[in-house]
Design goal:
The structure holds 2 protein chains of 2 kinds. By secondary structure, chain A is of the alpha+beta class. Chain A is built from 2 helices and 9 strands; from the N terminus they run E-E-E-E-H-E-H-E-E-E-E. In chain A, helix 1 crosses helix 2. In chain B, helix 1 packs across helix 4. Classes of the chains: A alpha+beta, B alpha+beta. At the A-B interface, strand 2 of A face helix 2, strand 3, strand 6 and helix 5 of B.
Chain lengths: 165, 196
């Protein structure tokens, strides 16, 4: 929670479970088989807080891009998948209300600023989600309300023989 | 800078949890007509992320009734139940689980127990603690806890007072979490005469 991970190991599956108001930002460069995933808790980092860039939508995007490029990703080839940002309760503890929606908006804004297209989203609503990102082919699966389904498959991603969909 | 709490302060907070949950246990016992035990309460002082991660497996499905607290303190009371506990509770309350009536009964149970807990704290501290309308959610544990507890102004270090009630001879053991937000802990400690 509040962290991010990147990998260039094709066998790795990056996972974030139990997203409520938090947002999972996945960045993929499927051709180069690198992927990153951040578990964002809040929209904007307070001034001077850079200890955990994965915790805030605005700093998470930059941190993911930098880390992925170090692993060989090409910034221009990166694509994003967003999940989370639900509103599970009607009472609002955060000033400004609905922190889930604000996390999503901040993530979209940061991605737009970095010129990264969002290929798929499973955001908003009232249910929790888990996201699994396969580094080898960039396939993103989401579990929500007891069912799991594929959210995104990069074009040209090879179907793995015997792979359960 | 994360606050740290001394042993004296943590002991005082555990005592708060003890009194609150004992009172809630008595209320539950009256509700279902069976004896209820209380686990030794724990006071965790840690970051919010740690508190949530340690609460249990992130994808575990739980039913949670959340009662926001208003008045002199900003806090939350959460009653967390695994499916087996929920089914047992409904049976003991004489309602069908997974029905509208069953769901309402659980909300009411959470409401009553939270109100007892808060009533005991109020007597102990002299603070006005009023329960706001409860909400019930059934979903992944981490999703529920983050959605209930994360605020933008989160100071990150939180105190979670945790205790589990167990209905004697039944697989019914709701866990109670009392989470004072944003510096409310100090308000409690001051009233208990252990804080600054």
């Amino acid at each position: 929670m509040g962290e991010f991970a990147v990998t260039a190991n094709a066998g790795d599956v990056l996972t974030t479970i139990g997203l409520g108001s938090c947002v999972g930002i996945a960045l993929l460069d499927p051709k180069r088989r690198v992927a990153g995933l951040a578990h964002v808790m809040f929209p904007f980092a307070p001034d001077g807080d850079v200890a955990l860039p994965g915790k805030y939508a605005d700093t998470a995007v930059g941190a993911l891009i930098a880390a992925l490029c170090e692993l060989g990703a090409r910034a221009g080839a990166l694509a994003a998948v967003l999940t989370g940002g639900a509103r599970m309760f009607t009472f609002d503890r955060a000033a400004g209300g609905d922190i889930g929606a604000r996390n999503v908006a901040a993530a979209e804004h940061a991605l737009a600023g970095a010129g990264i297209p969002i290929r798929a989203s499973a955001t908003g609503g009232i249910t929790g989600r888990s996201i699994r990102v396969r580094a080898g082919d960039g396939v993103v699966r989401v579990r929500e309300a007891g069912t799991e389904a594929e959210l995104y498959r990069p074009p040209g991603a090879p179907d793995q023989a015997g792979d359960g969909r | 800078m994360p606050e740290t709490y001394s042993d004296v302060e943590l002991d005082a907070l555990r005592e708060v949890a003890n009194i609150g949950s004992s009172t809630a246990a008595t209320a539950l016992s009256s509700l279902i007509g069976m004896p209820v035990d209380v686990s030794t309460p724990r006071a965790h002082a840690m970051t919010l992320s740690q508190a949530i991660e340690q609460a249990g497996p992130g994808e575990m499905i739980v039913t949670t009734v959340v009662v926001p607290v208003t008045g002199d303190l900003d806090a939350l009371v959460l009653m967390v139940m695994r499916p087996a506990s929920e089914e047992a509770a409904c049976r003991l309350l004489g309602v069908v689980a997974d029905s509208d009536v069953g769901r309402s009964a659980l909300v009411e149970m959470g409401n009553i127990l939270a109100a007892s807990y808060l009533g005991a704290l109020s007597t102990l501290t002299g603070l006005v603690l009023d329960p706001a309308p409860p909400e019930r959610v059934r979903d992944m544990l981490h999703a529920v806890l983050t959605s209930a507890l994360l605020t933008e102004a989160s100071t990150d270090q939180v105190i979670v007072l945790e205790s589990t009630l167990t209905v004697a001879g039944e697989e019914c053991s709701p866990t109670f979490l009392f989470v004072p937000m944003r510096g409310s802990v100090n308000d409690i400690l001051v009233r208990l005469r252990v804080g600054e």
